[in-house]
Amino acid sequence: MTMIVLLCLVTALYILHPYLNIVVLKKVVGITLFVELFYLIGHYMSGWPFPTPEVILQIAIVVAVGVALGVIFSRIWPLPENKGFERIFRTVLIVVPSLGIGIGFQLLLQGQYATQALYLVFSLSSWLGSGHFIKKAQVSIK
Description:
Keywords: Membrane, Transmembrane, Transmembrane helix. This protein has 142 residues and is mainly α. It has helices at residues 2-16, 22-46, 53-76, 85-110, 118-129.
């Protein structure tokens, strides 16, 4: 029941929010497919549990919310064009809180006995989503 409610909320978020366009949706699908492929390979090579449809839906929900958080954060604080301390500080400010939120999603979706690291998937997807908007260098005319 919790997953259905979360899926409806995520769908409404992606329909109603103006920054979550088709490019963001492509990013969500790409990250979700990569993570699912990772767990599928892990099943055959390391004996991990096979990703059931419920787990696939959980991964898709976590990735969609993580990318949405990253895109909204990117709109508030765009990625600087040049490398430097600002990028490092910005990465820490998105990844550390998203780990905490991801642990909440982990407990909400899988309970105490988790089979996937959803908190790391959430943090990774929010970090990858935070590169959506890039700050352009200001040109001064003298």
